[in-house]
Amino acid sequence: MINHHKWHSTLEAICIPLAALLFSLLLFGIFCALAGVDPFGVYASIYRSAFGSWRAFQNTLLRAAPLMLSSLCTALPARLGLIIIGNEGAIVVGGLGAVAAGLTLSTAPPTVVQIAMAIAAILCGGLWIGAVGALRHYRGVNETISSLLLNYIAIALLNHLVGGPMRDPSSLNKPSSYPIAAINMLGDIPGTRVHYGLIYGLVACVVAYLLIQRTTFGFAARVAGGNIRAARIAGLPVGKLTMMICFLAGSCAGLAGMVEVAAVHGRANESLNANYGYSGILVAFIARHNPLAATLVAILLGGILASGGSLQRSHDLPDATVLVFQGLVFLIVLFSESLYGKFFKESQVKRSSAVTV
Amino acid sequence: MATEALGWWGVPLAIAAGTLRGSAPFLFVSLGECLTEKSGKINLGLEGTLLTGAMSAYAIAYLTGSPWLGVITAGVAGMMLGVIHGWLSQQPRVNDVAVGIAMIIFGSGIAFFLGKPFIQPSAPALPALQFGAWSNLPQVQSALQISPLFLIGVAIAPLMQWFFRSTRWGLYIRAVGDSPDAAKAMGISIFKVRMLCIVVGSFLAGIGGAYLSLYYPGSWNERISGGQGLMAVALVIFARWRPMQCLYASLLFGGTQAIGPALQSVGIDSYYYLFNASPYILTLLIMILTCSPKRTLNGAPGALGQ
Hints:
The structure holds 2 protein chains of 2 kinds. Chain A is an all-alpha fold. Helix content of chain A is 71%, strand content 0%. Chain A contains 14 helices and no strands. Chain A is globular and about 65 Å long. By secondary structure, chain B is mainly alpha-helical. Chain B is 68% helix and 1% strand. Chain B has helices spanning 10-38, 46-64, 67-88, 96-115, 138-143, 148-166, 168-178, 180-185, 190-214, 228-238, 243-265, 272-276, 278-290, and strands at 129-130, 145-146. A two-stranded antiparallel ribbon of chain B has the order 1-2. In chain B, α1 (10-38) runs parallel beside α6 (148-166), α1 crosses α10 and α6 (148-166) packs antiparallel against α11 (243-265).
């Protein structure tokens, strides 16, 4: 009986997301057809420019790296029943922290500089989202709204710093900070064009998975997420858990900012605010807040993001097409949540959704 | 800038003018959100609705030459997004906040996709009423140009307050929002009431979008809304779910938004971006000061978000 349940829920956990993705492809195809573009041609060029060749796949992996890190910023707090969407802000402050550290220590050995940049990014991002957790616990401020407001505040801070105090006077049209010395940048993984950020992302996801599934800390978090009152009665330190999980979540997104700064742009400017935050939320929801699944989903979504340029070139579609596609996928994946447990009548185990306000 | 001639006096005048001009989108979105939340649902997706409204209003006004037709279209476009949100957020185990985030992505995607061809051309703007003819200062005259759409919004606020307090339908909505079980016992369809509230709320938000693209700032581009739709949620909390207080809160937010540009016009621009973030900072501060972990907020619908 119990094996049955397990088998059924595994089957559902694989089939429902797949069916959701297929259905969103179908709807997106209809959307393209309405816009006067051949949907099969669009699918083909998405596939070609995302996974069609090793060169294309490397492009996909480049985009997947920050998505993995960013998705953890939503996926980890979701275990506690918190919906945090401050990924974009945490990426931005993480990137700012990394640049500040990289510029201050520019004469130290490269390894030291890179470690310092990572630590600064982790601290900045962690404190940023940690504050959201603290506000939630001590003041009862809704975490979704406060994290969202912090996104806008972070972007204003970025614009202020790169337009004023941190500005490199030689950056004329696009205000930027001074660049990090080339020697201090994260290099590429040997034999590829993919930078080390991918390793950061994969390691962070595996560590997050182990932390949630295999440690007492993770167990306590899951208990508190399931039923906060029961957790309090059992004597779990709910406040401490909230803030630690939020800190970890923010530090992952902060690291994504560091990767963007230290491996891609080399300096802080408005490119930091490249929507990896919002896409990361989507990755977390499709992966049902499972960090291991998030790695795969991030690669899939990274592919879609990587294909944006070719959609523009070969089908004359605006770059917002990718945004429409993401929105459709997100809506359908959310709808698919209501399908779990519907197909097997005997498995009437009451499931508590991971997301409750 | 016209304020130069007035020197420092230009700053409060510019803020007052900004309040009268910039608060209408906040007003429409927050009234829409207030209606939605009174029925017990949260619609974070009003940001996408605002963008879609702005785009469709601009496009229709450009194509037909009639800005008022654009306003109506914006409302209808908002309603369509509202139907999606209303249906999806009432499915079992689907969280309305998550649907809202998805609707932000979807709504802004649709708006940017369809709105791409309309970034360059210029559409006819909504006419303004001149209340400043008594003054011979051109700054005062331009500050007192008021859009009729803003006045409509100002009129909706007390109407909605009366509607909630004194009508049968207002009672139904409050019942559904406060205690769905009691409402069910009264024979009210929770699904229908919430659907209607979300759809009408989205209509209002769409009109707010039309105000953005057709009156102030009065052009269509992808950065036009800048988070105003999201702030609606916080605004409604600040206004304690009362339509009249939504009006006052919107005026306050419109004024805060004008501080940055007003100071820039007298030469203070070193903190320009931070002053631009002041509505968000203000919202956050208000939430920190007014929320409490011990109790739900005064006036909050009992079943909000469930």
